[in-house]
Write a structure and sequence with these properties.
Blueprint: H1 24-33, H2 35-38, H3 46-54, E1 63-67, H4 73-81, E2 87-92, H5 95-104, E3 109-112, H6 118-124, E4 130-135, H7 144-157, E5 158-169, H8 176-188, E6 191-198, E7 205-211
Parallel strand pairs: 1-2, 1-4, 2-3, 4-5
Antiparallel strand pairs: 5-7, 6-7
Helix pairs in contact: 3-4
Bound molecules: S-adenosylmethionine (SAM).
């Protein structure tokens, strides 16, 4: 496994105060109401957000797309590290979560739409493709057809040599859908690195960094 990208975050803003953030109880309410798309029991921890952010080379990223920001844990970190001229947008299918991310990160473009629509929003933002696609989509609750369609969309919209970063909860590779997702990655990408586990998360998680 090659060493992670050395990344010196370029901090542009300070985190928002706690009262502007979505609460864990708000997240849990969405888990109960939309279990088929949420796929988690709690928002990711700061430790996972730090690891995801560490794997992005912000100096070379002109376009970053985030899929499934939830309440904006990764979005907040990404926005703090991003160069001012980087194009960034996030696609979140759940309108409650999309609104939570907008409240937490008012400077971020967050569209309430499916990850399947990456290309449409790249064009809306005058971009042909993305150097980075950062995902916390619940891959392991998607069936094989859904996984294939979403990964086709990721591949079609990732720049040559671009990077796909995805979290995968520890243990989900033991289930058939989780195993299918992690076994598919080396067939799609020229290089796949597995980072973690990051134990300080509920549940502990792995972070995959995949180079097209
Ligand atoms: C496991 S949660 C992760 C949330 C957040 N990024 C975090 O780490 O705390 C998965 C997120 O993906 C969103 N999602 C699920 N399917 C989606 C799709 N097809 N397009 C966009 N977002 C989707 C869910 O609504 C949810 O916010």
């Amino acid at each position: 496994m090659s060493p992670p990208v050395a990344n010196q975050p370029h901090r542009l803003s300070t985190p928002l105060p706690l009262n502007k953030r979505s609460t864990p109880s708000g997240f849990i309410k969405q888990v109960v109401q939309r279990p088929q798309t949420t796929g988690a029991i709690a928002p990711s921890s700061r430790a996972v957000a730090d690891e995801v952010t560490r794997l992005v080379d912000f100096t070379s990223a002109s376009t970053i797309v985030e899929l499934g920001p939830g309440t904006g844990v990764f979005t907040e970190q990404l926005m703090q590290c991003m160069q001012p001229d980087t194009t960034f947008f996030a696609l979140e299918i759940n309108p409650i979560f999309a609104e939570a991310t907008r409240n937490r990160c008012p400077q971020a473009r967050v569209y309430t739409d499916s990850a399947m629509s990456i290309q449409h929003y790249l064009h809306t933002n005058n971009c042909s493709d993305a150097e980075y696609i950062v995902s916390s989509l619940p891959w392991t609750i998607f069936n094989e057809t859904e996984q294939r369609r979403l990964l086709d969309t990721v591949m079609d919209n990732l720049a040559p040599g671009g990077t796909f970063i995805s979290i995968v909860y520890l243990g989900s590779q033991l289930r058939s859908r989780g195993r299918h997702f992690t076994q598919t990655l080396p067939k799609r990408f020229s290089r796949v690195e597995r980072h973690g586990p990051i134990w300080f998360n509920l549940p502990p998680t792995l972070v995959y960094r995949c180079i097209k």
